[in-house]
Amino acid sequence: MSRLPPVDDADVAAVTAQLGRPPRGMVAVAARCVCGRPTVVRTAPRLPDGSPFPTTYYLTCPPLVAAVSTLEAGGLMRELTARLADDPVLAEAYVRAHEAYLADRAGLGEVAEIAGVSAGGMPTRVKCLHVLVAHALAAGPGVNPIGDEVLALLHDVWGPDQCRCQ
């Protein structure tokens, strides 16, 4: 993960408005909408209250969060987990995504309580599409195959090249 600029007050205010609460442990904006608003934030592996937090990439764009939630409600996670069991190429790419996620988090510090634990069910199942999409947006295409696939499924309702923030 390339070095990201530190968060500023405008980014904190934008994410607070998106989430309806102040962000916890936010250290950077990892991906932005074409309008400039945060889409994904990068979060410290240990929150200010001392709690370990494995979710390094957190999806904040409300229209995208809603679209991903719709896919989750439709059972896509179960289907994707089954594909991991049947598709060794996809499974290996997903293991690499897990390793990339862990490396990105390690760049923020090591937290023993979550060592080896990434997010979203990686590396063996699909548990949270939101974090996998957030990782795909933050890392770029080709790093998280499940996140990339979910983004492709959403192309009619959300895309990184179109502002849907309004």
Please render the helix and strand layout as text.
Elements: H1 9-19, E1 26-32, E2 38-43, E3 57-59, H2 62-73, H3 76-86, H4 88-106, H5 129-139, H6 145-153
Helix pairs in contact: 3-4, 5-6
At a glance:
The protein is mostly helical and 166 residues long. It contains 6 helices and 3 strands, in the order αβββααααα.
Distance between the termini: 29 Å
Q: What structural class results from the helix and strand content?
A: mainly alpha
The portion of residues forming beta strands comes to 5-15%
**Strands, total number:** 3
The geometry reads as globular
Radius of gyration based on Cα positions: 15 Å
How would you sum up this structure, described in words?
It is a single chain. The chain has 166 residues and is mostly helical. It contains six helices and three strands; from the N terminus they run H-E-E-E-H-H-H-H-H. Strands 1-2-3 form a three-stranded antiparallel β-sheet, sandwiched between helices. Helix 3 crosses helix 4 (88-106) and helix 5 crosses helix 6. 37% of the residues are buried.
